[in-house]
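**Reference record**
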Amino acid sequence: MKKRIKLIIGYDGTNYCGWQVQKNGIAVEAVINEKLSRLLGEDIIIIGASRTDSGVHALANVAVFDTETKIPPEKISYALNTLLPEDITIQKSEEVFPDFHPRYTNSLKTYEYKILNRKFDMPTLRLYTHFIYYDLDARTMSQAAEFLIGEHDFKSFCSLRGQALTTIRTIHELQVTKSGDIISIRITGNGFLYNMVRIIVGTLIKVGLGVYPPEHVKEILDKKDRNFAGPKAPAKGLTLIKIDYQNTLDTHGYV
């Protein structure tokens, strides 16, 4: 009898073309599919919650797959980690009910973008932060971020080749903080459009540089036109922090 297993997955996205299987490179999803199939002796195809872009990292992406294995669900993570490369690690594995779907169950996703703002880059941070030499004003960036909180049409903050049926999304939290040389932009929402987080970050950087006043972000939002927003920030500064499933009862306590 088949059962559905949920995986919590952390990965360094530097060497991958993103989460989703593609023809132009190695995807995180493809690596896990291949190693799981070898481990379980079945043809396994996982379903992921967030299809992160090339170079984007994750602390806790979520995926599920169906299997007939007799390996205890909580032990699959240990066995699978012995086969995976060092830049992908399963943080947890557990059984969920068959109707749990990581993309179609109501959830809140939290991403964090890190900017290294100092005179010189730091080699040990180069893969996980976006280095900016010019001084950024985190205070005005935070003021601008407030205009984006709530339910809005984020068409201005979506790459043109996005295929979403609607560009309306809800941002529940958007914080800009500074600690030493690191500016962190943490955003939580019920879903994000293609490149939405990176375009928001690129726009907030323009505010931090003094190119836009904070209130200009509201004007960009109202335009509903990608041409008015800032550039897309580089992928390497972005990390998927967590996915919180709101309807925990729908998964019968297994989340």
